[in-house]
Amino acid sequence: MKVGVIRNKHAEDFRKIYLLFIRLTSNVLKLFPFAMVMCSVVWFYFCPEHILSDIVNDWHDADTLEKIRIVRLYLKTSFILTVVGVVISYLSSDKFMPVKRRK
Fold first, then answer.
1. Which DSSP helix (H) or strand (E) runs through 26?
2. 64-to-51, 67, 74, 101 alpha-carbon distances in Å
3. Phi, psi values for residue 75, rounded to 5°
4. Spatial distance between the Cα atoms of 59 and 42, rounded to a whole number of angstroms
5. Where is the chain membrane-spanning (predicted)?
6. Could you give the CA distance from residue 50 to residue 79 in angstroms, rounded to a whole number?
7. What is the pLDDT along the chain (103 residues), one digit of tens a residue?
8. How buried is 17 (Cβ within 10 angstroms: 0-12 exposed, 13-18 middle, 19+ buried)?
C-alpha cells in the first residue's frame, strides 16, 4: 500500500518538474527572436567603436566557414542570454517563492 503511494508521489513530482521545464522552454522560444534583436542593439550601443570596426573588417576578410562560425556564436550567445533571462524571471516570480499575504 505504501509503495503505491510513494510511486504516485514521485510520479506527481516528476510531472510537476516536467511541466515546469516545458513552460520555461516555451517562454525561451517565445522570447528568442526578441532577444536576437535586443542583443545586437545592446551590443552595438555599448561596444567601443574600435571593436566594432575590427568585427566588420574581420567579417569582410573572412571566408564562409569563419562567417558561419561568427553567426553560430551570435545565435548561441543570444540563446544563452534568453535562457538566463527566463530562469531569473522565474526565480524572482511568485510561482517559485510565493509571498505570504497578510489577512
1. helix 2-46
2. 21, 5, 15, 58
3. -65, -40
4. 20
5. 20-46, 73-93
6. 26
7. 455 555 677 778 888 888 888 888 888 888 888 888 888 888 788 888 888 888 888 888 888 998 888 889 888 988 898 888 888 888 887 776 666 655 5
8. exposed
Q: Are the CB atoms for 36 and 78 separated by under 8 Å?
A: yes
Integer-rounded Cα Rg, in Å, for the chain is 22
DSSP secondary-structure letter at 1? Answer: -
Q: Which residue has the cell 553567426?
A: 71
If you write DSSP's letter for every residue of 29-56 in order, what string do you get?
Answer: HHHHHHHHHHHHHHHHHHS-HHHHHHHH
Please report which helix (H) or strand (E) contains residue 20, including its range: helix 2-46
CA 51 to the chain's CA centroid: 26
